[in-house]
Amino acid sequence: MVTVQKCSRVYLESYTSIMSFGLDKKKLEEFFNKEIEEADRMTIELDSDDIIDEAFDSDVCLLVVGDPLGATTHASLVFNARKAGVDVEIVHNASIISAVGCCGLQLYRFGEIVSIVFWEENWHPDSYYFKIAENKKRGLHTLCLLDIKTKEQSIKNMMKGRKEFLPPRYMTCSDAAKQLLEIVDQMSDENMEPVYTKSTEVVALARVGWDDQKIVFCSLEALCDLDMGPPLHSLIIPGELHPMELDFLKSFYHNVF
Amino acid sequence: MVTVQKCSRVYLESYTSIMSFGLDKKKLEEFFNKEIEEADRMTIELDSDDIIDEAFDSDVCLLVVGDPLGATTHASLVFNARKAGVDVEIVHNASIISAVGCCGLQLYRFGEIVSIVFWEENWHPDSYYFKIAENKKRGLHTLCLLDIKTKEQSIKNMMKGRKEFLPPRYMTCSDAAKQLLEIVDQMSDENMEPVYTKSTEVVALARVGWDDQKIVFCSLEALCDLDMGPPLHSLIIPGELHPMELDFLKSFYHNVF
């Protein structure tokens, strides 16, 4: 709080995550008694030199949801600022990467994190499947971060140079479950042994750390039809389960049929 | 803060981590305007039922350094409390698991976390070597958490049933580097190809998030003789480095020769 208040300019980064319900720029302005400017994708990725320039003469602060260095963009901003001779202070915060411990899975039993991205009409990336497979082979859990699309332009608007954006999209656990099963369906055609099936039990998490947090332990098939409510969602594909982990997960059992 | 203040009893867990310099029980008591009791290993592991019993009639709070569910002990306490019918609220916090991003390595490029434990006279566990090797094979970074020994009894005191404890021990980056190289030395005898050598460059981190945080990027050999200062220390064995990660790490270059 003291760090924010001593700054002459405060930005709120608004495209790598979202704030919990009821918390917005206005509430933060009241809390800090400071004016706050929203910094969207364009500001952070394209105009970051302007922020660094400002920081030469005065203290500038960028508020981020989650750990401030979780996204490559932020690490890059810190690096460029220091390279330009600007001192950077980092105030760490809770992150989904460790907060997922709330489902009872042990953090030291997680392997590589994967990102599941929205499929476009002619682009169905599935490289995360192979990372899940590698983790599974070693008995490790996989945390899947689900895609966020903000300030995306339609091809039409992009071509016309219009700065109009599509509504934000947040991938749900149900979207992710459907994609994961589609990948496996295609593999069965090729006679490969999939590392998960529709009956594999996974952990769906929504709004971790918020008042209305929801955690459900159910099969991938059941998850396809499960409404976990508003964003953000995350998904865990468990590896080998320790009896204590399984007991904990069972408390989130949800029989949707 | 509000959560802590509404509790009739506040414990401070004191054996899975330590608080930063200048912050102690007394400072926290002043901050919260509350009396705080220290909960050591015995209290958490052996007397946890007493804490759960207390929580039936009144709000009890356990303060933890780092994410509250990073340690198995804490997850187990939450599970047992809920099983006994006690509501548990979790307030997430920054954790070394995500805070390591401050060295410039990307969090989604980390593999399984390992713990490096103190070797005893006749017990030299080295299973973490194989986990490092698996991560390396996939180009992933390995975060090594270093051992903490608090409230350990000497065999003499244990046999005499004396509740006297050895001074706390915290593994340094230098200790860890020496153990890692000893494992590799023994392997060379067996004509195995080690996944790191004494010239492998690693990241040493001390007191992450504290005012006197120190990060050094140097070879394992150099690290053996490097004093990183007071605890807690952590170590990262990088996998494949993205050019941006390498540039960031180079800003912590330390030529000790």
Automatic annotation (TrEMBL), chains A, B:
It catalyses: 2-[(3S)-amino-3-carboxypropyl]-L-histidyl-[translation elongation factor 2] + 4 S-adenosyl-L-methionine = diphthine methyl ester-[translation elongation factor 2] + 4 S-adenosyl-L-homocysteine + 3 H(+). S-adenosyl-L-methionine binds at residues 67, 70, 95-96, 146, 208, 233. Gene3D superfamilies: Cobalt-precorrin-4 Transmethylase, Domain 1, Methyltransferase, Cobalt-precorrin-4 Transmethylase, Domain 2. Keywords: Methyltransferase, S-adenosyl-L-methionine, Transferase. Its EC number is 2.1.1.314. It is an enzyme of class 2 (transferase). One of its GO terms (biological process) is protein histidyl modification to diphthamide. Pathway: Protein modification; peptidyl-diphthamide biosynthesis. It holds the Pfam family TP_methylase. Coiled coil: none annotated. CDD domains: DHP5_DphB. One of its GO terms (molecular function) is diphthine methyl ester synthase activity. The keyword Kinase does not apply. Residues 45-223 form the Tetrapyrrole methylase domain. InterPro entries: 4pyrrol_Mease, 4pyrrol_Methylase_sf, 4pyrrole_Mease_sub1, 4pyrrole_Mease_sub2, Dphthn_synthase. Belongs to the diphthine synthase family. S-adenosyl-L-methionine-dependent methyltransferase that catalyzes four methylations of the modified target histidine residue in translation elongation factor 2 (EF-2), to form an intermediate called diphthine methyl ester. The four successive methylation reactions represent the second step of diphthamide biosynthesis. This is diphthine methyl ester synthase. It comes from Brugia malayi.
